[in-house]
């Protein structure tokens, strides 16, 4: 091992890079397979209901689904507009 390799490490080969990328793709596909079938419909319906009662754009609403300790967690984040003050109405 030369001093340069020791200081800077070995350059990753293209095969190693390809293997790492493939592992990432496989992990993403597994997550997609585990997502419930009803999730896209649920997300769409939640957005429709929210838009009836709160005036926000679709960009202000974020829905994510993940597993935590073997339990499915649906997280809904909404950036609400500033509400007018009592004297401003």
Automatic annotation (TrEMBL):
What Gene3D superfamilies does the annotation carry? Cell division topological specificity factor MinE (3.30.1070.10)
Q: Is Cell cycle included in the keywords of this UniProt record?
A: yes
Alphabetized UniProt keyword annotations = Cell cycle, Cell division
UniProt keyword Cell cycle, yes or no: yes
Q: Name one GO biological process term.
A: cell division
| Gene Ontology MF annotations | identical protein binding
Q: Which SUPFAM superfamilies match?
A: Cell division protein MinE topological specificity domain
What is the stated purpose of this protein? Prevents the cell division inhibition by proteins MinC and MinD at internal division sites while permitting inhibition at polar sites. This ensures cell division at the proper site by restricting the formation of a division septum at the midpoint of the long axis of the cell.
Family assignment? Belongs to the MinE family.
Q: What is this protein called in UniProt? A: Cell division topological specificity factor
Q: Which organism is it from?
A: Paralysiella testudinis
| Gene, per the UniProt record | minE
